[in-house]
Amino acid sequence: MIDVAGLDRLIGELWARGYRVIGPVVAEDAIALGELHGVDDLPRGCHDVQAPGSYRIERGDDPSLFAWAVGPHSVKAEVFPPHAVVWRARREEGDGTVTITENEADDVPVAVLGARPCELAALAVLDRVLGAAPTPDPVYRRRRDECFVVAAECGTPSGTCFCASMGSGPGADDGFDLALTELVDEGGHRFVVRVGTGRGGEVLDAVLDDIGHRDVEEADLSARREVLEGAAARMGRTIDTRGLPELLAGNIEHPRWDDVASRCLACGNCTLVCPTCFCSTVQDTSDLSGTIERTRSWSSCFDLAHSYIHGGPVRPTTRSMYRQWMTHKLSTWWDQFGTSGCVGCGRCITWCPVGIDITEEAAAIRASAGRV
Fold it and tell me: What is the 3-state secondary structure (H, E, C) of the chain?
């Protein structure tokens, strides 16, 4: 058990160990990921209000530091960056030899503080897709291995959250180095801390040796259970996952796809904010000095070029692109990776300009599947 001063000391300890500490900060009227140098950088008293196509922050006078759900930035960007150099080749002057540098490690290890349980589930998905593939992605693998994760269990889901339906929250079971549960009640402002890894235990021991602590009591554990049970009961959305992969696979020509296509802008916002989308594109550039650089950047299945093969794109319409995205997330991802591609964070609902709701679309297909 630590208090706010202990949390501040934890942030300092991570910096002292060579990590760049990032976590929730208020930036451009949203709770986004930014550098943390102490608890004063955290969004004290801030609460996010989310709905389809709508996001805003409300500020209160309460001392809570983690009384929000998720913002537009996911932890994915720290381990699978939007832009990365795959390799760089340079022709040397004189003898003309070519030097190739692959996956150059020029970044500082990151410690993420405040990762929500749905983010942990998303990282577990990416671990299977990118980290445990027959040929693991070296950039992802290096950054992921170096990443120190301090989870913050969720007590305040938003109006678009449905992690309880996906089994990915609001509590955290694994996937973290340390996990915090914020408690603000008559017992004071404090954090239940759980250790998930050996390095997490080493960091916590260093913090506790410096500031002292008290042991977790049954009242604290009871308060933690109440926080998580209350969060699960207040989820803004639900989705019925029973037989969902088979349902979607069997309704490829359902008229609902035309309905959603009439609203979808094919902007790709849903893929950009999604914590599990991993599509990327590769580009080679060269300059007059003889340097050639191959870079990888995030892409989207809503890009027309995404499905381009000889002769044209396989999915040339908004209908086909949205259907690909949703059925891949909730259906064929299971066939490929043995898990869902959706963790119920609700970002795709909040940050869709026209408020398309993936839970609503799945429910609509389920409700009429036997009648079309």
Answer: CEEHHHHHHHHHHHHHCCCEEEEEEEECCEEEEEECCCHHHCCCCEEEEEECCEEEEEECCCCCCCCCCCCCCCCHHHHCCCEEEEEEEEECCCCCCEEEEECCCCCCCEEEEEECHHHHHHHHHHHHHHHCCCCCCHHHHHHHHHCEEEEECCCCCCCCCCHHHHCCCCCCCCCCCEEEEEEEECCEEEEEEEECCHHHHHHHHHHHHHHCCCCCCHHHHHHHHHHHHHHHHCCCCCCCCCCHHHHHHCCCCCCHHHHHHCCCCCCCHHHHHCCCCCCEEEEEEECCCCEEEEEEEECCCCCHHHHEECCEECCCCHHHHHHHHHHHHHHHHHHHHCCCCCCCCCHHHHCCCCCCCHHHHHHHHHHHHHHC
